[in-house]
Specification:
This protein is an alpha/beta fold. It is 32% helix and 18% strand. Strands 10-8-9-6-5-13 form a six-stranded mixed sheet, with helices on one face. It has a four-stranded antiparallel sheet with strand order 4-3-14-16. A four-stranded antiparallel sheet has the order 19-18-21-20.
Length: 743
């Protein structure tokens, strides 16, 4: 009879399961590679997901795109190796463990040892590994799950260390004390590419303040006091009143026109004089109130009378001193409480006068250092006021930091500070203000800009080369490469590599106490050799790598030690001058881990040198648009800085998967789609075809199950009818031939 099977009905889930079973039984995926062993290779890199969270429906579209290209190239005769990978370090894992153990970062090392904590992280990271393997199988995505690369593997870490040593040798690794994005709830600094993940900037409503800074009458300010007999104040606007206790300077624009205005304090009725940018007068006063009698003002009236006394350029205000606004502490180093000239001051909003808290703003810090201004850091790394701020001591500067069981004050600390200013006659105006504010990509809590000692990759030194190489990459869509990614490179800053956490790749740099001597370790062989020197110098008693045999790349040999904390922290090395060196306690950015996968997945350069050369750079990669400033960037940065090459030739950046109304999916909103239920209900073919054909891959997809039903009916229904007719005709033809033969 006919070799074409007849189907009594269109049951896509059943057909899907039959095909998956057939592939598995005949080991079709592995054979598709083995049968092309001598063919030309097509290199694909798989971006590593973290298995400590469940896969979502958005992972299905990304993997569908990957699978389509890889299968297509396989059909063309290419050998397409597809190595799976697991992203096993970083905040996703650590925060998951903290939640499980009901601890915070501050408890690690006290309530639980670093050793036990990291042991829990090692278990947690593969919590949903089976679910990921299941979704991979059930959606029909071909990738080698039997031999994945794992970023916590000692071999992987050794390759990462080798890359870091190369950067160090090129003088592209340096330590600096700068203002960095900091996540108090995660307890670590963040890189700018982490801060620019989709959804990190959220619109928030804060209580803003226009504070009054009383000018000191002296020779520099005498030209102001010659115009009025009233107390004169600089007024400065801020959306972060919690930074006011740490104010040490004010900034104005050199060429901006400012005015001396007599007006009233709306809260007390006192007649005062203020300094305000001319262009911003309309934000505080109405034209019809100009030259109204100030003495007739009644407290509570909305419209303030005013009189313009004088006009001058910002340059004339340079170095004028003022009285400290909130007298909690004084800077220990540098000058303070005076006006500076700064290039970032504008008249777009506010007062044209910027309050500077050098510890909490990169621009503030830069201009303060240029002018010898000291700083105050009256907020700790938990996001709480320090003891110097006695009336707000221990309060979080952001209400979002409070946990459900915390003793949360009735009013946010910003509001409390504004009330204090009002009571002390130091407030000119306060109102609610909506603006965009950065949040941590993992905790979803507001970040702070905070002074940190960090290690940086000097990416800015290769900015032009990164732009040049980016122009050779085939981006789909092209607008992502030219726009989102290209613009990111145009505004590149040095990569903050440091993470003050516990579970991750340790920074392999050992330094003397004075920081004058350092060594960056690039292999286990090198580390073992340096420890032997340390033992000879009397700084260590035994070598933890005694049983490690250099050149033996067996899993057994690489399992005799653990390169994670706390074990590497215990290693002491000796400098060339004989001084003891301890390891810099930082871990590295987890995105450096994933960006190292072209090399570390092969344990390059220690093994597989020829295989690496054959498969670098990748012919094709694909991930969601959220990876533009994540994995796509770190791949590109590392390959440019170390190999002067692109890491990938072609890239597809797919859009986000939203609910049918266009909203972001989340469990909290109850609009998340379970991919397992969807695949079981509709089958892999209908689900994949719907997701890939409903819109351009790089456009956002409004996921609607009704669309899958339509695909089943229109596309697969038509295909089924055509096939059924074809199969029937085959049967009729064979039957007709048999009847003739029987006659």
């Amino acid at each position: 009879m006919s070799k074409f099977k007849e189907y009594k009905e269109l049951n896509l889930p059943s057909i899907h399961r039959d095909i998956l079973s057939l592939w598995k039984k005949n080991d079709v995926f592995k054979k598709s590679i083995k049968n092309r062993q001598n063919g030309k290779s097509f290199t694909f890199y798989e971006g590593p997901p973290s298995a400590n969270g469940m896969p979502g429906i958005h992972h299905v579209i990304a993997r569908t795109i990957k699978d389509l290209f890889c299968r297509y190239k396989t059909l063309q005769g290419f050998r397409v190796d597809r190595k799976a990978g697991w992203d096993t370090h970083g905040l996703p894992v650590e925060l998951g463990v903290e939640k499980e153990l009901n601890i915070t970062k501050e408890d690690i090392g006290t309530k639980i040892s670093i050793e036990d904590y990291n042991r829990a992280c090692r278990v947690n990271v593969m919590k949903y590994k089976q679910s990921w393997e299941n979704i991979t199988d059930e959606m029909g995505y071909w990738v080698d799950m039997d031999n994945p690369y794992e970023t916590y593997n000692n071999k992987y870490i050794e390759s990462v260390w080798w890359l870091l040593k190369k950067l160090h040798e090129k003088k592209l690794l340096y330590k600096g004390h700068t203002i960095q994005p900091f996540s108090p709830k995660a307890g670590t600094g963040l890189s700018t590419h982490e801060l620019n993940q989709p959804g990190c900037y959220k619109n928030v409503k804060d209580t803003s303040a226009v504070a009054k800074f009383k000018i000191i009458n002296n020779d520099l300010s005498s030209f102001l006091f010659s115009k009025t007999t009233k107390d004169i104040f600089f007024i400065a606007w801020t959306t972060t009143p919690w930074t006011l206790p740490s104010n040490t300077a004010l900034a104005v624009g050199k060429k901006i026109s400012y005015t001396l205005i007599e007006t009233v304090n709306q809260y007390t009725g006192d007649i005062i004089a203020i300094i305000l940018a001319k262009e911003l007068i309309g934000g505080f006063f109405k034209k019809e109130d100009e030259n109204r009698d100030l003495n007739n003002y009644k407290v509570g009236e909305k419209n303030l009378p005013y009189c313009i006394i004088d006009e001058f350029k910002g340059g004339q205000l340079n170095n004028i001193k003022y009285v400290q606004l909130l007298k909690y502490a004084l800077p220990e180093n540098g000058d303070s409480f005076k006006v500076l000239i700064a290039d970032f001051v504008t008249t777009e909003d506010g007062t044209g006068i910027v309050h500077l808290a050098p510890s909490f703003g990169a621009d503030d810090n830069r201009v303060a250092k240029m002018n010898g201004i000291g700083s105050l850091t009256l907020v700790d790394e938990q996001g709480k006021f320090t003891k110097e701020v006695h009336d707000f001591y221990g309060q979080y500067v952001k209400d979002d930091y409070y946990m459900p069981n915390d003793n949360k004050p009735k009013l946010p600390v910003d509001v409390q500070i504004i009330i204090k200013l009002k009571e002390e006659g130091k407030l000119f105006k306060s109102e609610k203000y909506e603006h965009s504010y950065p949040h941590c990509w993992r905790t979803d809590k507001p970040i702070l800009y905070y002074p940190l000692d960090s290690w940086f990759v000097k990416t800015t030194s290769h900015k032009e080369r990164m732009l040049e190489l980016n122009n050779t990459i085939n981006w789909k869509p092209a607008s992502t490469g030219d726009g989102r990614f290209g613009n990111w490179l145009e505004n590149l800053v040095d990569w903050n590599l440091s993470r003050s956490r516990f579970w991750g790749t340790p920074l392999p740099i050992w330094r003397t106490e004075d920081g004058e001597e350092e060594i960056c370790i690039g292999s286990i062989k090198e580390l073992k050799k340096e420890i032997d020197k340390s033992i000879a110098a009397g700084y260590m008693k035994k070598n933890p790598f005694t049983n490690f045999i250099p050149g033996d790349f067996s899993e057994k040999n690489y399992a005799v030690f653990d390169l994670h904390r706390p074990y590497v922290d215990e290693i002491k090395l000796v400098s060339s001058s004989g001084l003891i060196m301890t390891r810099e306690l930082d871990l590295i950015d987890v995105w450096f881990d994933s960006g190292s996968m072209p090399y570390a997945q092969l344990h390059y350069p220690f093994e597989n040198k020829d295989l690496f050369r054959e498969n670098f750079p990748a012919d094709f990669i694909a991930e969601g648009v959220d990876q533009t400033r994540g994995w796509f960037f770190t791949l590109h940065a590392i390959s440019t800085l170390i190999f002067d090459s692109v890491a990938y030739k072609n890239v597809v950046s797919n859009g986000l998967v939203l609910d049918k109304s266009g909203n972001k999916m989340s469990k909290r909103l109850g609009n998340a789609i379970d991919p397992f239920i969807t695949l079981n209900k509709y089958g892999g073919d209908a689900t994949r075809w719907y997701m890939i054909s409903n819109s351009q891959p790089w456009d956002n997809l409004k996921f609607d199950e009704g669309g899958i039903l339509e695909v089943q009916r229109k596309f697969f229904g038509t295909l089924y009818n055509a096939y059924s007719f074809f199969a029937l005709m085959q049967i009729l033809t064979i039957t007709y031939i048999l009847l003739i033969l029987v006659r």
